[in-house]
Amino acid sequence: MNIPHDISQYNHHFKDYTELRVQENRVARISLTNGDVTGNVSSAQSGVSARVFKDGNWGFSSAPEFNDHSVGRVVKSSTENVQFMNLKDTSRCGLILPDTMADYEMDFSTKKPRENQKYWVDFAREVDGYLEKKFPELLSRNVVVAGTDMEKSLSTSDGSKSYSLTPRSFLVVSVAIEKDGNPVNLYEFFGGLGQMEDNLLLPSDYFPKLDELVGRLKQKADGIFPKAGLQNVILDADLAGILAHEAIGHTTEADLVLGGSVAGDLMGQEVVSPLITLIDYANTYADKTCPVP
């Protein structure tokens, strides 16, 4: 299904304040284990949803089909749902939605010709073949090439419109080696924002990174387990950042702050130590779009 960039032609179904959204998620995934293709999937899921606001409450409904009839049915169902909610909640909270209008488009799709599944199977085979030839001592090799496209189109009764296509694609390599009769594993992700044609250019681009991955795997295999009990440790910035994000960062994310997070009034205050700085990169950092906008 090709989602229209503008779905405002369906606004004639609206009676109260309504938000209409059409979305399609497309997934392509190829998996290899020790050179054998264990997965080759290409799928798409789509649907339409609407939510209606009236007298302080929301009504929501959705359907898997996208056409004029299903849109009308979804909007009608959402309207009936909010009417039902208002029968149960007569407080009429007095909430008034802001009167705004916006028109926004964000399309990160590739400008290159799209490759078929066989191309990506061959891509994964070449990556696996390099590992097999250069590192025959590996106990196992797993190579995954995957891409996900999230395409959305939005229209509201106040005239706002939005379209976005946010693709992500990855090469995932997991390798294992045997040490003292036990397997030791390590994996790495390569890729990020963008479709596979933009992120995964040539298998040979990753050969130096695969050398590094196997090198770290061997270092891990030669490592020792820490002693049990309380220990003083120095955390690498990557790990410390993850822990700080889980403990504190979620409460400072922009959408949660707007929703009433307990951290909403604590901007600029010290967190544990003046050496720690937390920033919510919601969309852009260093003039580049974040991998997960």
UniProtKB/TrEMBL annotation:
Matching Pfam families: PmbA_TldD_1st (PF01523), PmbA_TldD_3rd (PF19289)
GO biological process terms held by the UniProt record: proteolysis
GO molecular function, one term: metallopeptidase activity
Sequence similarity: Belongs to the peptidase U62 family.
InterPro entries with a match to the protein in the record: Metalloprtase-TldD/E_C, Metalloprtase-TldD/E_N, Peptidase_U62_metallo, TldD/PmbA_N, TldD/PmbA_sf
Gene Ontology CC entries for this record: cytosol
Occurrences of domain Metalloprotease TldD/E C-terminal (ranges): 232-282
Lineage, broadest ranks: unclassified sequences, metagenomes, ecological metagenomes
Organism: marine metagenome
Protein name from the UniProt record: Peptidase U62 modulator of DNA gyrase
PANTHER family referenced in this protein's UniProt entry, alphabetically: METALLOPROTEASE SLR0863 (PTHR30624:SF0), UNCHARACTERIZED PROTEIN TLDD AND PMBA (PTHR30624)
Metalloprotease TldD/E N-terminal domain mapped to chain residues: 19-80
Entry-linked SUPFAM superfamilies: Putative modulator of DNA gyrase, PmbA/TldD (SSF111283)
Statement: the UniProt record of this protein carries the keyword Hydrolase: yes
Keywords: Hydrolase, Metalloprotease, Protease
